[in-house]
Specification:
Helix 1 crosses helix 2, helix 1 runs parallel beside helix 6 and helix 3 packs parallel to helix 4. Strand 14, helix 15 and strand 15 form a beta-alpha-beta unit. 39% of the residues lie in helices and 15% in strands. The termini are far apart. The protein has 22 helices and 19 strands. About 2% of the residues have low confidence. The strands form four sheets. Strands 3-2-4-5-7-6 form a six-stranded parallel β-sheet, with helices on both faces. It has three domains: 199 residues, Thiamin diphosphate (ThDP)-binding fold, Pyr/PP domains (Rossmann fold), CATH 3.40.50; 153 residues, TPP-binding domain (Rossmann fold), CATH 3.40.50; 189 residues, Thiamin diphosphate (ThDP)-binding fold, Pyr/PP domains (Rossmann fold). The radius of gyration is 27 Å and the shape is globular. The chain is α/β, with parallel strands linked by helices.
Length: 586
């Protein structure tokens, strides 16, 4: 087996191995050659080559999202690492572990006008949990120019002693910083940045390792739940007449079912879940916008909680945010082991534990249930909304609304659904989705920029079929994500093509003007077929209800290559159909 000659490259690769970082996403370059050699020559690692660094980072994010373990990104020096930034920001706000390994030039080659060089130190600022600059190895004396050798130290014995001492200090520093960074990514669930300087030559190999880094287990600080504090929370819960639980982005196994059942039994509790929460119970309230948008002033006041408890990631629904900012609860607790956002401007407590851990201590202290009609009133309203929802679908022509209904009803059970941002995720919130389907969306920063690449990364590490549902702008924006040799045959993409940024037609603004069409809606006449031809996808399309029904019959079945279904909807009527929906269900 061959190894990179540079000790620092060996150290990075061996410590990733010792820390069980298996997935390595590499973008081609020269300065990162020692790392590329080290990772790709070792069968322990699953290595991927993705040319476009932005796509590579979102691809890695999709893998890490599913494995819940750190994925390493490897790039060359210069602007390459800046292309990681959108995905790094997403990982930071979505609490997804990632490790950026950016190759760099030695200090003496920085800011002198050398090519492919930028100021890489701390380049991600506050959007990483930890950032470190590793130290350059001391060069082997035999490789130094004569004048540099003479200038070091004249006495050979002193020179060797100094060399060995400095190199030992450098090695110890690099080992500690590397393990510290990997531990932070794993334990605090987020991105870290490790900047790795290399001097030339970059491609030399050796048959054996010249260093043997030691594994250091950096144990996380474990906080114990204070029993007195939990009793206090329980007392405040029991004294609250109306309690609302609001769940953002989370994994299906976030909460044990017994605690969900306990919440569902309480008449004084309404549990609002979003599609991305992946939590289900017949007594819960999915489709938040569908329930609250048509409420009048009196009903909104009736819904106003005394106590609001939130957990999970960021919330999609703008309507629930507006409601809670206007009709503030007396208390708002957020349960999260890392941080709490004051989303509704009324945060009173950050409970720094995993939700399941907190409920394990909290639920047994709830000695009785408070009698209330709080939940039952809104359960009846929920049923009315669902009936009106079904009625409305029978009255409307083919449109975004009808297309999402048909697609979401056709998705096979036990599939993974990745949803694009903007209109796609907002439409998805209005429909009931099978509890066997896990739903994901990049809601950390809510950008449209890397959804395709994220979905592909997810698909690569799953045996379950992954389906990506997206709008046209998001798809075309990240079309380079299909420049990827790892896409499984059962991967499926559904593009709702309404010829522009349809969500802007729903928002306030002057529509149907040249300025609006060009700079807000960004009207276009593109279709996905040429992209499918380029990247080896099967392509099908639908332009009406009949052709969509026909296409969906075979779309999810096994095939020799991945498939894309493009659904064309009427650009000028989609917004009116959606806005009329909220009037109709009232």
């Amino acid at each position: 087996m061959s190894y990179p000659k540079i000790p620092l490259a060996q150290t990075v690769v061996e410590l990733c191995k010792l820390q069980n970082v298996r997935h390595i996403v590499i973008s081609p370059g020269s300065r990162n050659a020692p790392l590329t050699i080290g990772f790709t020559f070792d069968d322990f690692f699953q290595c991927y080559s993705i040319v476009d660094e932005r796509c590579a980072a979102f691809f890695a994010l999709g893998i890490a999202q599913q494995t819940k373990t750190p994925v390493a990104l490897v790039c060359t020096s210069g602007s390459a690492m800046l292309n990681y930034y959108p995905a790094i920001a997403e990982a930071f706000y979505s609490k997804i572990p990632m490790i950026v390994l950016s190759a760099d030039r030695p200090k003496h080659l920085l800011e002198i006008g050398d090519g492919q060089t930028i100021m890489q130190k701390d380049v991600y600022g506050k959007h990483v949990l930890f950032s470190t600059n590793l130290k350059l190895d001391i060069k082997d004396e035999n490789n130094l120019p004569e004048e540099e050798t003479i200038q070091l130290l004249k006495n050979l014995e002193q020179r060797v002693e100094r060399f060995l001492g400095i190199q030992k200090d450098i090695q110890e520093y690099n080992e500690f910083e590397l393990q510290r960074a990997i531990s932070i990514a794993s334990q605090k669930m987020g991105p870290v940045h490790i900047n790795v300087p290399f001097d030339e030559p970059l491609y030399d190999l050796v048959p054996e390792l010249t260093i043997r880094p030691k594994l250091v287990n950096i144990e996380p600080k474990v906080s114990k739940i204070d029993d007195f504090q939990v009793k206090n929370y329980a007392e405040r819960w029991l004294n609250s007449e109306k309690k609302m639980v609001l769940v953002g982005v989370s994994y299906a196994d976030t909460i044990d079912q017994e605690y969900l059942n306990d919440l569902a039994q309480e008449d004084s509790v309404v549990v609002f879940t979003e599609t991305t929460s992946n939590l289900h119970h017949p007594q819960f309230f999915p489709g938040i916008d569908k329930l609250i948008s048509p409420l009048n002033e009196e009903e909104l006041k009736q819904l106003q909680p005394d106590l609001l408890i939130t957990f999970g990631g960021l919330i999609v629904s703008k309507r629930i945010k507006s409601f809670l900012r206007k009709y503030k609860p007396k208390e708002h607790w957020h349960i999260d082991p890392y941080r709490a956002y004051d989303t509704f401007f009324c945060l009173t407590a950050h409970i720094p534990f995993a939700p399941n851990e907190f409920f394990k201590s909290f639920m047994p202290k709830l000695t009785h249930h408070k009698k209330s009609d709080y939940k039952n009133y809104f359960l009846q309203l929920r049923q009315t909304r669902r009936i009106k929802h079904a009625e409305y679908l029978q009255t409307i022509p083919f449109s975004d609304f009808k297309a999402y209904d048909k697609v979401l009803n056709a998705i096979p059970s036990k599939a993974i659904l990745q949803v694009g941002n903007s209109a796609a995720v907002r439409y998805t919130q209005l429909f009931q989705i099978s509890k066997t389907i896990d739903v994901y969306c990049n809601r950390g920063t809510s950008g449209i920029d890397g959804s395709t690449s994220t979905a592909i990364g997810c698909a690569v590490v799953h045996k379950r079929q992954t389906i990506f549902l997206t709008g046209d702008l998001s798809f075309f924006y990240d079309s380079n994500g299909l420049w990827n040799n790892y896409i499984p045959k059962n991967f499926r993409i559904i593009v709702i093509n309404n010829q522009g940024g349809g969500i802007f037609r729903i928002l306030p603004g002057h529509k149907n003007t040249e300025n609006f069409d060009t700079f807000f809606e960004t009207k276009h006449h593109l279709n996905a077929k040429p992209i499918c031809d380029l990247f080896g996808f099967s392509y099908d399309s639908a332009r009406d209800e009949k052709s969509l029904d026909k296409a969906l019959v075979s779309f999810f079945k096994s095939a020799s290559k991945p498939k894309l279904l493009e659904i064309f909807t009427p650009r000028l009527s989609n917004d009116d159909i959606l806005l009329d929906y909220f009037k109709f269900i009232k």
